[in-house]
Amino acid sequence: NAGVTQTPKFRILKIGQSMTLQCAQDMNHNYMYWYRQDPGMGLKLIYYSVGAGITDKGEVPNGYNVSRSTTEDFPLRLELAAPSQTSVYFCASSGSGSGLEQYFGPGTRLTVT
Amino acid sequence: DQQVKQNSPSLSVQEGRISILNCDYTNSMFDYFLWYKKYPAEGPTFLISISSIKDKNEDGRFTVFLNKSAKHLSLHIVPSQPGDSAVYFCAVYNAGNMLTFGGGTRLMVKP
After folding, report:
1. B52 vs B107, more confident
2. Which is higher by pLDDT, B99 or B94?
3. In terms of CB atoms within 10 Å, which end of chain B has fewer, N or C?
4. Chain A residue numbers touching B43 (CB-CB < 8 A)
């Protein structure tokens, strides 16, 4: 049981490049989330999904896009990377219902130069 | 406008003593609170939670206290162990299934 997996672990992008961060979960969770964590800060929600085909913006969605075609996968797309997107990105998932814990992946460290 | 604040960026305690990590929130409508632990180069892992209908929840060495009138949450670790050294985040559920995190407190437990 792998839980939440993320690829790649590390990536360096040049300004203006694009990339997709992959996230997959094998717990049959309906809810999935993308967060970013800047140095010394807490996690901020970028986008979330309550099920396949349904996504919504979180606190800091600008510069990102998501899609959810299956229950298992929730990729995050960065278009036209900017230095401000240098961060550690975490994907998480949870079951349906209120107050449930979220399970996090190991993160992707992204540097934009 | 931070809805969840952890005012102590770091805390150092001796092994075997109590660690107390604090968290303040602004919205009295928040109804579910969680603590996460994070080691370097890993994702956060869930530690303990509490619903607003309770004022205390205990799980082994970890106890979370909720003071709704003060809008204050605390995590007690007794006794503290070197393996507890990590960054601890408090988080609250806001508007459905969205978690809002505090900035974190780095706990160092000295042997």
Report:
1. B107
2. B99
3. N
4. 4, 90, 92, 104-107
Look at strands A43-51 and B98-101 and give their pairing. Answer: unpaired
C-alpha distances (whole Å) from A46 to each of A20, A85, B96 are: 14, 11, 15
What whole-number distance in Å separates Cα of residue B45 and Cα of residue B111?
Answer: 23
Distance from CA of B89 to the nearest CA of A (A): 7
Q: Please give, rounded to a whole number of angstroms, the shortest distance from the CA of A69 to a CA of chain B.
A: 20
**Pairing of the two strands A10-13 and A108-112:** parallel
What are the distances in angstroms from CA B27 to CA A39, B3, B7, B100?
A: 26, 7, 17, 12
Three-class secondary structure assignment of A90-105: EEEEECCCCCCCCEEC
What the block records as the tokens of B51 is 């619903």
